[in-house]
Design goal:
Low-confidence stretches: none
Shape: elongated
Number of strands: 2
Order of helices and strands: HHHHHHHEHHHE
Strand order of the largest sheet: 1-2
Helix content: over 70%
Amino acid sequence: MDRFSQNLRRARKAAGLTQQQLADRLHVTRQSVSSWELGRTEPELQTLTELAEVFGTGAGALLGETGKPGYPRLQKRFVTGFAVCAGLLLAVFCLELGLFSYWRKLHDFGAMLYAALWKLATPPLLWYLAGLGAVCFFAWWMPVRSGKRARLALLLAALALGLPVLALMAQFLIVALGNLDGVRVWLAPLLRRPAGRTAMQIILPGLSGICTGLFACSERSV
């Protein structure tokens, strides 16, 4: 399989298109696209130009003249990822404002308890979504490439960075819902110090979101 066929297949999959969908855009048959990807035939110059326009790249990149595969801009999966993160960020932020004003008017223990848990969980969630959404946004314009080992390392890093925050939230929730007075939450002392609070509510979830985004958006390096 020559470089053009490899680049074409990689660009098509990165754009989330099937062979039939690509063929429909170019007004050719699916068999033609399959033949190009198998290296049996090559498209005409006009069709090659149209292919480059579909993927938002240059014809030379598809032919391998730059030494790198074509990278389609505004890929659907990255646009969707950014839109989801932005929507959740806005929803949580608006919910935070609404609940905060509501809980301030209440004085019963249950409302105060859930308000405390919400205030504890909201910052990590917002920073995680911000890190994840930022990677999805930048992946619109530039490729994020890594090997299998690098992707595995990113996944493990995302889990390792997020687990302390999740463990803290889970402990507080169990103690609160179980009315377990006097039970020690072993990560709670960190929240009493500014540096610890910053680490648990901003730095760790933000870095976890970035690692998650890099893992989700990265393509196999060539």
